[in-house]
Amino acid sequence: MPLNDIGLLRFFVGVVTAGSLSGAARAQHITLPSASRKLRQLENDCGVRLLHRTTRRQSLTDEGQLLYARAVRILDDLEHVEQLLQHKGENVTGQLRVTTPVSLGRRRIAPLLARFGALHPELQIQVELTDTVLDLVDAGVDLAIRLGGMEDSSYISRPLAPNHRVLCASPEYLRRHGDPAQPTDLAGHQCLHIGLQAHAEWRLGNHLVRIQAHLAANDGEVVHQWALDGYGIALKSIWDVAQDLNAGRLKQVLRQHRSPATPLHAVYPHKHHVAPRVHACIDYLAAHLQRPEEES
Where in the chain is the domain with CATH 1.10.10.10? Predict the structure, then answer.
Protein backbone atom coordinates (compact mmCIF):
# COMPACT_ATOMS: atom_id res chain seq x y z
CA MET A 1 0.00 0.00 0.00
CA PRO A 2 1.51 3.39 -0.95
CA LEU A 3 2.71 5.76 1.76
CA ASN A 4 1.07 9.09 0.98
CA ASP A 5 -0.07 10.52 4.32
CA ILE A 6 2.05 13.51 5.36
CA GLY A 7 0.27 13.54 8.71
CA LEU A 8 1.52 10.03 9.49
CA LEU A 9 5.07 11.08 8.57
CA ARG A 10 4.81 14.04 10.96
CA PHE A 11 3.50 11.68 13.64
CA PHE A 12 6.37 9.22 13.13
CA VAL A 13 9.01 11.97 13.35
CA GLY A 14 7.29 13.09 16.56
CA VAL A 15 7.55 9.58 18.02
CA VAL A 16 11.29 9.45 17.33
CA THR A 17 11.79 12.98 18.66
CA ALA A 18 9.86 12.29 21.87
CA GLY A 19 11.71 9.02 22.45
CA SER A 20 8.55 7.06 23.24
CA LEU A 21 5.04 6.52 21.97
CA SER A 22 3.57 7.89 25.18
CA GLY A 23 5.74 11.00 24.94
CA ALA A 24 4.61 11.56 21.36
CA ALA A 25 0.98 11.12 22.41
CA ARG A 26 1.36 13.79 25.11
CA ALA A 27 3.17 16.18 22.79
CA GLN A 28 0.54 15.78 20.07
CA HIS A 29 -2.40 15.86 22.51
CA ILE A 30 -3.79 12.47 21.56
CA THR A 31 -4.45 9.34 23.59
CA LEU A 32 -1.94 6.52 23.77
CA PRO A 33 -4.36 4.07 22.04
CA SER A 34 -4.78 6.59 19.21
CA ALA A 35 -0.99 6.91 18.90
CA SER A 36 -0.67 3.10 18.79
CA ARG A 37 -3.25 2.96 16.00
CA LYS A 38 -1.39 5.60 14.00
CA LEU A 39 1.86 3.66 14.33
CA ARG A 40 0.18 0.41 13.29
CA GLN A 41 -1.38 2.15 10.29
CA LEU A 42 1.99 3.53 9.23
CA GLU A 43 3.68 0.14 9.62
CA ASN A 44 0.87 -1.47 7.64
CA ASP A 45 1.21 1.15 4.90
CA CYS A 46 4.97 0.54 4.74
CA GLY A 47 4.66 -3.22 5.08
CA VAL A 48 7.51 -3.35 7.60
CA ARG A 49 8.10 -2.96 11.34
CA LEU A 50 9.48 0.49 12.16
CA LEU A 51 10.07 0.34 15.92
CA HIS A 52 11.26 -2.21 18.45
CA ARG A 53 9.25 -1.46 21.59
CA THR A 54 9.41 -2.76 25.14
CA THR A 55 7.88 -1.41 28.32
CA ARG A 56 11.12 0.47 29.05
CA ARG A 57 12.47 1.73 25.72
CA GLN A 58 12.07 1.92 22.00
CA SER A 59 14.57 1.73 19.14
CA LEU A 60 14.30 2.13 15.40
CA THR A 61 14.56 -0.85 13.08
CA ASP A 62 16.78 -0.44 10.01
CA GLU A 63 13.65 0.34 8.00
CA GLY A 64 12.54 2.80 10.68
CA GLN A 65 15.89 4.61 10.51
CA LEU A 66 15.58 4.89 6.74
CA LEU A 67 12.01 6.21 6.93
CA TYR A 68 12.92 8.68 9.68
CA ALA A 69 15.80 10.16 7.69
CA ARG A 70 13.65 10.49 4.57
CA ALA A 71 10.62 11.82 6.48
CA VAL A 72 12.68 14.56 8.13
CA ARG A 73 13.98 15.62 4.74
CA ILE A 74 10.50 15.60 3.18
CA LEU A 75 8.94 17.57 6.02
CA ASP A 76 11.83 20.03 6.04
CA ASP A 77 11.42 20.58 2.29
CA LEU A 78 7.68 21.07 2.70
CA GLU A 79 8.17 23.50 5.57
CA HIS A 80 10.81 25.35 3.59
CA VAL A 81 8.44 25.81 0.64
CA GLU A 82 5.73 27.07 3.00
CA GLN A 83 8.18 29.51 4.57
CA LEU A 84 9.37 30.76 1.18
CA LEU A 85 5.78 31.47 0.19
CA GLN A 86 4.92 33.05 3.54
CA HIS A 87 8.05 35.19 3.88
CA LYS A 88 8.73 36.00 0.22
CA GLY A 89 10.08 39.51 -0.05
CA GLU A 90 10.76 39.94 3.69
CA ASN A 91 14.25 40.96 4.78
CA VAL A 92 16.35 39.20 7.43
CA THR A 93 17.01 42.02 9.87
CA GLY A 94 16.91 42.81 13.57
CA GLN A 95 18.39 40.94 16.54
CA LEU A 96 18.64 37.15 16.74
CA ARG A 97 19.47 35.52 20.09
CA VAL A 98 20.62 31.90 19.88
CA THR A 99 21.57 29.43 22.62
CA THR A 100 23.55 26.26 22.03
CA PRO A 101 25.48 23.67 24.09
CA VAL A 102 29.01 24.82 24.85
CA SER A 103 31.04 22.19 22.99
CA LEU A 104 28.77 21.99 19.95
CA GLY A 105 28.49 25.77 19.87
CA ARG A 106 32.23 26.36 19.83
CA ARG A 107 32.98 23.71 17.24
CA ARG A 108 30.12 24.00 14.78
CA ILE A 109 27.26 26.39 15.54
CA ALA A 110 29.15 29.63 16.26
CA PRO A 111 31.21 29.48 13.02
CA LEU A 112 28.06 28.79 11.01
CA LEU A 113 26.21 31.67 12.67
CA ALA A 114 29.09 34.01 11.82
CA ARG A 115 28.83 32.98 8.16
CA PHE A 116 25.06 33.39 8.26
CA GLY A 117 25.48 36.87 9.74
CA ALA A 118 27.89 37.81 6.96
CA LEU A 119 25.12 37.08 4.46
CA HIS A 120 22.74 39.45 6.28
CA PRO A 121 24.56 42.67 7.26
CA GLU A 122 21.45 44.17 8.88
CA LEU A 123 21.14 41.23 11.30
CA GLN A 124 22.69 41.30 14.80
CA ILE A 125 23.36 37.85 16.26
CA GLN A 126 23.95 37.10 19.96
CA VAL A 127 25.07 33.59 20.92
CA GLU A 128 24.81 32.18 24.45
CA LEU A 129 26.86 29.02 25.03
CA THR A 130 25.43 27.01 27.90
CA ASP A 131 24.69 23.39 28.72
CA THR A 132 21.71 24.55 30.80
CA VAL A 133 18.31 24.02 29.17
CA LEU A 134 16.90 27.55 29.23
CA ASP A 135 13.29 28.65 29.26
CA LEU A 136 13.46 30.44 25.92
CA VAL A 137 10.63 32.85 26.66
CA ASP A 138 11.95 33.89 30.08
CA ALA A 139 15.49 34.19 28.71
CA GLY A 140 14.39 36.18 25.68
CA VAL A 141 15.98 33.66 23.32
CA ASP A 142 14.73 33.27 19.75
CA LEU A 143 16.29 29.93 18.91
CA ALA A 144 17.92 27.02 20.75
CA ILE A 145 20.10 24.36 19.15
CA ARG A 146 19.78 21.17 21.20
CA LEU A 147 20.60 17.50 21.12
CA GLY A 148 17.01 16.31 21.35
CA GLY A 149 13.63 17.96 20.90
CA MET A 150 11.01 19.32 23.27
CA GLU A 151 7.78 17.71 24.44
CA ASP A 152 6.44 21.09 25.58
CA SER A 153 3.72 22.03 23.07
CA SER A 154 4.51 25.74 23.48
CA TYR A 155 7.76 25.13 21.59
CA ILE A 156 8.40 24.04 18.03
CA SER A 157 11.14 21.46 17.55
CA ARG A 158 12.60 20.91 14.08
CA PRO A 159 15.18 18.18 13.39
CA LEU A 160 18.40 19.56 11.91
CA ALA A 161 20.69 16.57 11.60
CA PRO A 162 21.14 12.98 12.80
CA ASN A 163 23.22 12.17 15.83
CA HIS A 164 24.75 9.13 17.50
CA ARG A 165 27.33 8.51 20.19
CA VAL A 166 30.64 6.75 19.66
CA LEU A 167 33.25 5.18 21.88
CA CYS A 168 36.62 6.84 21.40
CA ALA A 169 40.06 7.08 22.94
CA SER A 170 43.42 8.57 22.06
CA PRO A 171 45.90 6.52 19.99
CA GLU A 172 48.31 6.71 22.94
CA TYR A 173 45.80 5.12 25.32
CA LEU A 174 45.03 2.35 22.84
CA ARG A 175 48.74 1.64 22.31
CA ARG A 176 49.10 1.12 26.05
CA HIS A 177 45.87 -0.78 26.71
CA GLY A 178 44.80 -2.22 23.36
CA ASP A 179 41.45 -1.95 21.58
CA PRO A 180 38.41 -3.60 23.18
CA ALA A 181 37.15 -6.36 20.89
CA GLN A 182 33.62 -6.55 22.31
CA PRO A 183 31.48 -4.47 24.69
CA THR A 184 32.19 -6.68 27.69
CA ASP A 185 35.91 -5.85 27.32
CA LEU A 186 35.15 -2.36 28.62
CA ALA A 187 35.19 -3.82 32.14
CA GLY A 188 38.96 -4.05 31.80
CA HIS A 189 39.42 -0.50 30.50
CA GLN A 190 39.53 2.95 32.05
CA CYS A 191 36.14 4.48 31.20
CA LEU A 192 35.48 8.22 31.21
CA HIS A 193 31.89 9.09 32.11
CA ILE A 194 29.80 12.24 31.83
CA GLY A 195 27.99 12.37 35.15
CA LEU A 196 28.93 11.97 38.77
CA GLN A 197 28.03 8.32 39.26
CA ALA A 198 30.77 5.81 40.03
CA HIS A 199 28.88 3.22 37.97
CA ALA A 200 26.88 3.77 34.80
CA GLU A 201 25.21 1.86 31.98
CA TRP A 202 26.24 2.50 28.38
CA ARG A 203 23.86 1.44 25.59
CA LEU A 204 25.91 0.07 22.68
CA GLY A 205 23.66 -1.21 19.92
CA ASN A 206 21.78 -4.13 21.44
CA HIS A 207 24.17 -4.33 24.39
CA LEU A 208 23.67 -2.61 27.74
CA VAL A 209 27.10 -2.47 29.35
CA ARG A 210 27.65 -1.60 33.01
CA ILE A 211 30.90 0.31 33.43
CA GLN A 212 32.86 1.59 36.39
CA ALA A 213 33.99 5.15 35.77
CA HIS A 214 37.74 5.61 36.11
CA LEU A 215 37.13 9.36 35.85
CA ALA A 216 33.74 11.10 35.90
CA ALA A 217 32.71 14.73 35.51
CA ASN A 218 29.46 16.60 35.01
CA ASP A 219 31.01 18.56 32.12
CA GLY A 220 31.32 17.00 28.67
CA GLU A 221 34.28 19.19 27.72
CA VAL A 222 36.28 17.87 30.69
CA VAL A 223 35.60 14.27 29.66
CA HIS A 224 36.50 15.14 26.06
CA GLN A 225 39.84 16.57 27.15
CA TRP A 226 40.55 13.52 29.34
CA ALA A 227 40.05 11.32 26.28
CA LEU A 228 42.41 13.50 24.23
CA ASP A 229 45.00 13.34 27.01
CA GLY A 230 44.95 9.53 26.98
CA TYR A 231 43.19 8.80 30.26
CA GLY A 232 40.62 6.35 28.91
CA ILE A 233 37.64 5.59 26.67
CA ALA A 234 34.74 8.05 26.45
CA LEU A 235 31.22 7.76 25.04
CA LYS A 236 30.63 11.03 23.17
CA SER A 237 28.28 12.53 20.62
CA ILE A 238 29.74 12.30 17.14
CA TRP A 239 29.19 16.05 16.83
CA ASP A 240 31.65 16.64 19.67
CA VAL A 241 34.45 14.39 18.45
CA ALA A 242 34.16 14.21 14.63
CA GLN A 243 36.96 16.70 14.03
CA ASP A 244 39.27 14.91 16.46
CA LEU A 245 38.51 11.56 14.80
CA ASN A 246 39.23 13.00 11.36
CA ALA A 247 42.50 14.54 12.58
CA GLY A 248 43.63 11.33 14.29
CA ARG A 249 43.64 12.84 17.77
CA LEU A 250 41.00 10.28 18.76
CA LYS A 251 40.24 6.83 17.42
CA GLN A 252 36.84 5.17 17.40
CA VAL A 253 36.57 1.75 19.01
CA LEU A 254 33.83 -0.89 18.78
CA ARG A 255 32.57 0.75 15.58
CA GLN A 256 29.94 -1.94 15.06
CA HIS A 257 28.31 -1.02 18.40
CA ARG A 258 27.05 2.53 17.92
CA SER A 259 25.07 4.10 20.73
CA PRO A 260 21.84 5.79 19.60
CA ALA A 261 21.16 9.36 20.58
CA THR A 262 18.51 11.95 19.83
CA PRO A 263 18.95 14.03 16.66
CA LEU A 264 20.15 17.61 16.64
CA HIS A 265 17.16 19.98 16.81
CA ALA A 266 16.31 23.62 16.40
CA VAL A 267 13.83 24.63 19.12
CA TYR A 268 11.93 27.90 19.16
CA PRO A 269 8.83 29.33 20.88
CA HIS A 270 5.53 30.29 19.26
CA LYS A 271 4.24 28.58 16.17
CA HIS A 272 2.65 31.64 14.61
CA HIS A 273 4.29 34.91 13.54
CA VAL A 274 7.85 33.66 13.91
CA ALA A 275 10.28 36.28 12.61
CA PRO A 276 11.77 35.61 9.16
CA ARG A 277 15.28 35.79 10.67
CA VAL A 278 14.52 32.70 12.80
CA HIS A 279 13.25 30.69 9.82
CA ALA A 280 16.18 31.83 7.69
CA CYS A 281 18.71 30.87 10.35
CA ILE A 282 17.18 27.41 10.82
CA ASP A 283 17.19 26.85 7.05
CA TYR A 284 20.84 27.86 6.87
CA LEU A 285 21.87 25.57 9.73
CA ALA A 286 19.88 22.66 8.30
CA ALA A 287 21.56 23.10 4.93
CA HIS A 288 25.07 23.14 6.41
CA LEU A 289 24.72 20.59 9.21
CA GLN A 290 24.54 17.50 7.02
CA ARG A 291 26.81 15.07 8.82
CA PRO A 292 29.20 15.82 11.70
CA GLU A 293 32.16 14.42 9.77
CA GLU A 294 31.60 16.95 6.98
CA GLU A 295 33.23 20.34 7.17
CA SER A 296 30.58 23.00 6.48
Answer: 6-84
- Rounded to the nearest angstrom, the gap between the alpha carbon of residue 10 and the centroid of all alpha carbons in its chain is 17
The answer on pLDDT for 152 being more than 80 is no
Q: Looking at residue 273, what is its pLDDT? A: 65
Give the chain's end-to-end CA distance (angstroms, integer).
39
**pLDDT given for residue 46 in this prediction:** 87
* pLDDT value at 224 more than 50: yes
Question: Class of the 164-260 domain?
Answer: alpha beta
Inter-CA distances, 193 with 10, 41, 90, Å: 35, 40, 47
Residues 228, 273: Cα–Cα separation, whole Å: 45
Q: Is the pLDDT of residue 296 over 50?
A: no
- Those residues whose C-beta lies under 8 Å from the C-beta of residue 291, and which sit 6 or more positions away, are 161, 162
Give the closest residue to 12 by CA, choosing from 128, 44, 80: 44
